[in-house]
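Researcher: For the record, we're logging two predictions in this thread. I'll number them. Prediction 1 follows.
Model: Prediction 1, sequence and structure:
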Amino acid sequence: MAFCTQSKLINYNPLFITNHTLSFHDHKTVRKTRNRALDNTFAASSSSSSSSSTQVSVAFEEGELERPRWTGETPLSRLVAALIAFKPLYSVMKYGARQVLISTAEKTNIPWREMTKEILESDVYKELERIEDLSLEYPDYYLNPFHAYDEGNLSWLAAAEAEAATMSMVRRAIPNASSLDEANQIVRGNWLKAIEEHHQQYSGDFLIRDILDIGCSVGVSTRFLADKFPSAKVSGLDLSPYFLAVASYKEKRSSSRPNPIDWIHGNGENTSLPSQSFDLVSIAYMFHECPERAINNVVKEAFRLLRPGGTIAVTDNSPKSKILQNLSPVLFTLMKSTEPFLDEYYLTDLEAVVREAGFINVETVLTDPRHRTLTATVPLP
């Protein structure tokens, strides 16, 4: 089922993405250990650059609360919900939220408009025809507007802008980094290091041979996984065929891997993939876009898909992040206006969900000032 047609490209105007900025303030990174410090020696790499070893030694501080005051059934949360429900104000909020990301990108030399234009004027549409499963039924929650796009993730514009938005997210997570590469060495490096350390500690001699990246979007996290574990067979699965088309298009033009990434149009709650067929299931920056019932189903599906000794790795916003707990009212209101299930995510006890699915060795650590990485293991026989 196609929710957006190629004809929309004809009307695309890069000037629609303006240089208008919204003033905002990020609290500086506070260096303090929560559960354990991550001393990372990570060979930072991406599909477009060669690996280089950099010593990264950072730890991050939690706030005093279990979750921000602007989530759940607090007076502040109810006020924000009421503001978002007011349609004229909601339209302004959507625009403002979008401009925060674009402003961050442009201030840090991320060519948002140029990257978007390049995708929309390419032959990426051929990839959609190859990847899209027309029989796939979309969950009701997935048809909601996300990230200031009325069609949510089922549109070419959302897909074309996704990588620039991801880069902007990384720069906002590490505002004092001198470059995107340096920010990635912390955000992506700590995430990958947490995965590697957990698997080595709890899975013995079981090598990571098969990896599934659920909710892979346009494949940024998938490519980092493929670079980190070059001998593994890596698959990226997503509900948006537009995102997957962009992922496939970019991968074909930037990489000659010995093990090409396989892109799968599917539902992470019920993938229809064989049981016990993966050693690592990664879920990166997806759960904050899901209702609690979907989070539960995806975790159960990950348990089914993993071999004994396999590792699940979830990275996403941390409810305990001091940075997120101290966001200014403008920023957290804008963020909630484009994330319809953010409250459900923050109220979900993710560690309990993972344990109830059957995982053991559940560990969670802040891997950057805003994000946590949870790792856990399927029990060995």
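Researcher: Logged. Prediction 2.
Model: Prediction 2, sequence and structure:
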Amino acid sequence: MAGRSQPPYRPRPNFSSSSSRSFHPSQPSRNSQSHHTKNVNSSTPNSTQIQNNASDKKTSSSSWDKSIDEDIDDIQNLVGTCPFMCPVEEREKRERLRDLAVFERLHGNPRQSSPSLAVKKFCRTISVKTLQGSDVRPLSVLEDTLNYLCNLLDSTEHPFEVVHDFIFDRMRSIRQDLSMQNISCSRVVSMYERMVKFHIISQHKLRRCSGSNISSLSYLNMEQLTKALATLYNLYEANRTTASIFENEAEFFSFYVLLHLDSKTQGTGETLSLWFRRVPSHIMKSTEMNFARKILRYFKLGFYKKFIHTTESEASYLQYCIIEPSINEASSCIIAKKAPMAYALSHLPDKYLFTTPTFRHCWNIIGV
């Protein structure tokens, strides 16, 4: 089947809230260069690198995405054949049970849908013995399904929390189908980038919603954001050649750093200082990563004026969506004059602030 990597690469633990010890970019790359990468090194891999790559492929195991909460360890060599966004059997069953979301109802009828409206739901438990290829969608259908879901993001017909809840569940189902088939090619990298974008934008929009369940939706959304990011980093590694990086890779790595601005979303495992050591050097030197580290320093050291000014002048839209809660916090500190010394020091040039032994000691304490 097109798009399947043989064999799939060995998975790594994810950046979940319970642990952040997952990304190991120092491991050798495995798959071919994708269509949306750019050249950073024209050197040819030596024989030792080639032997290491071959050895890694022999020891690879299945089920690369462990960030989804289902039991699929026993599924091997599954090839999806479902031509629709939702398997026919599931759609008919949900029609009988009136289990159709508002976006899936044909002419508003809660008991009728169609192949162009129904989207496969996420299933937490899967019966391996009864699972068939017709229950799983191939890569091309999953890409079409993702396109359909992303087009719903700007829908104004329903409250955003309703839109988010539907897309959130159906995207988890996409990840589930990809994982069951062990598809890990460069096309999947692009899909995961889009799913990470959805979670970031959703988090931004959910802050403007009101309701009793918004807090729960935000928590679950942030949880899936960190899990999707973890899998995306592993996909970058698996599809990278020695002469290329992905076009958006540096920006997506910066998201993990920026997520550490908010203590509520930080992992409880490994510190950023250790995480940085395993990030590829070309990513560490990138404009996006330099921005993220600078922003983190400003915020942790209380230089709120510089923090806000730098964010407004340099952040991308997705970076701003992550930083926004910290901007509100920094503004409150300035207005309330809770950090007068930090405010005064924020007028000093970076050359002084970030080269003296005193401030370097502060960086070591906060892990940046």
